[in-house]
Q: What sequence folds into this?
């Protein structure tokens, strides 16, 4: 009986030692078929590019017509169908906003017919909220337009509050001016608040 117990105990110890020596993560190697098919796809692309280059060298007129046909049509979206953006004035001001803890606040003085432009860095924010306010709640003042780091990112005119998507990282410009359809231009102080948003 003691021999049998000794045999079982030694078998258990040897099995536990053997199981400890195995690798925790199995190794997987790529199959030759998968590697060959990946190279075949790359070779096919290179052959197609070479054939296309040879055709372009042989017939330069056809490539120009193909290039014109393949160019996407530029879609120009109207900024507004009734309202216009106020052009920049001679005494236009330009200021870089210092953003602290995703917020900027400033009190400014605006002259009649003047456009105030502000620059801010979007950092990693997804949206920006801008609000302007004056003591006179009916003051002829608004966020005129916003322009992004890429020419295609622009919008406006807006009102006194704005939440704008920031699709690209970089410096954005926005301007504040009067509404041109109102005859009374605004002169005086106004408050500007900006907040970067990540939701």
A:
């Amino acid at each position: 009986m003691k021999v049998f117990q000794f045999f079982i105990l030694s078998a258990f110890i040897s099995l536990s030692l053997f199981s400890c020596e195995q690798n925790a993560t199995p190794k997987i190697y790529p199959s030759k078929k998968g590697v060959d098919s990946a190279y075949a796809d790359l070779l096919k692309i290179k052959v197609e590019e070479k054939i296309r280059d040879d055709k372009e060298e042989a017939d330069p007129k056809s490539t120009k017509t193909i290039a014109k046909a393949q160019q996407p049509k530029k879609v120009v979206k109207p900024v507004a169908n009734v309202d216009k953006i106020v052009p920049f004035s001679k005494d236009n001001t330009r200021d870089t906003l210092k953003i602290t803890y995703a917020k900027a606040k400033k009190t400014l003085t605006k002259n009649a017919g003047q456009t105030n432009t502000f620059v801010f860095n979007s950092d990693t924010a997804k949206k920006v909220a801008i609000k302007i306010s004056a003591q006179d709640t009916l003051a002829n003042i608004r966020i005129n337009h916003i322009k992004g780091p890429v020419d295609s990112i622009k919008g406006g005119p807006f009102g006194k509050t704005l939440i704008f998507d920031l699709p690209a990282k970089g410096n954005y410009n926005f301007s504040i001016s009067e509404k041109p359809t109102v005859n009374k231009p605004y002169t005086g102080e106004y408050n500007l608040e900006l907040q970067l948003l990540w939701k």
Observations:
- The mean pLDDT is 75.
- The two ends are 73 Å apart (CA to CA).
- The longest helix spans residues 32-58.
